[in-house]
Amino acid sequence: xxxxxxxxxxxxxxxxxxxxxxxxxxxxxxxxxxxxxxxxxxxxxxxxxxxxxxxxxxxxxxxxxxxxxxxxxxxxxxxxxxxxxxxxxxxxxxxxxxxxxxxxxxxxxxxxxxxxxxxxxxxxxxxxxxxxxxxxxxxxxxxxxxxxxxxxxxxxxxxxxxxxxxxxxxxxxxxxxxxxxxxxxxxxxxxxxxxxxxxxxxxxxxxxxxxxxxxxxxxxxxxxxxxxxxxxxx
Length: 234
Known about the structure:
The chain has 234 residues and is of the alpha/beta class. It folds into two domains: 7-74 and 215-231, no CATH class; 81-183, Ribonuclease H-like superfamily/Ribonuclease H (Nucleotidyltransferase, domain 5, 2-Layer Sandwich), CATH 3.30.420. It has nine helices and five strands; from the N terminus they run ααααβββαβαβααα. Helix 3 crosses helix 4, helix 4 (53-71) crosses helix 8 and helix 5 (119-133) crosses helix 6 (145-155). The chain starts with 6 loop residues before the first helix and ends with a helix.
């Protein structure tokens, strides 16, 4: 499947001694489907591959940042009307916050995992999203005062302000999209560290974007979702 991995993936492979095909398959399954690490250990055992669940976790932590970095230049442009919201993710028994936005078509704009839910976190999210996706014309948010304050802080530095709309019910597009992420997270039974949560959530978001058709295929050939994921390692 992968003969020569790209430089970023090659660096991540240091001290990982399994065939890359096997590692990529396990990592993709982990972030694409509602499976626990022990499920993956059993599934690979049925395929005559002996691998401990903790090893699969280590592969994910090593490889997902490299694959996410490779995806950046391949991501299709998103629309300029955003729907932004945050959802809750448990880390060491405490709730943390995954900031997310989708455009009018439902494509993922950007995401950011934060320890707090406040003006500073909202502003940091919008700065990241704008830096990587351009300036939106309109941002739809719910009645959150923190998100409104974060956007107002962004607008304070702009000649042409971003239009802000607040509506709990018109933000259903992004709230529905949260469910795809939470469905994968649920069998993981919470995360043990913030760093691991951030990396795994990034992988889930990556797989979710590929599944929604947000990865450019320059040669025009149709590739399955799995093939597109593996292509990031080339």
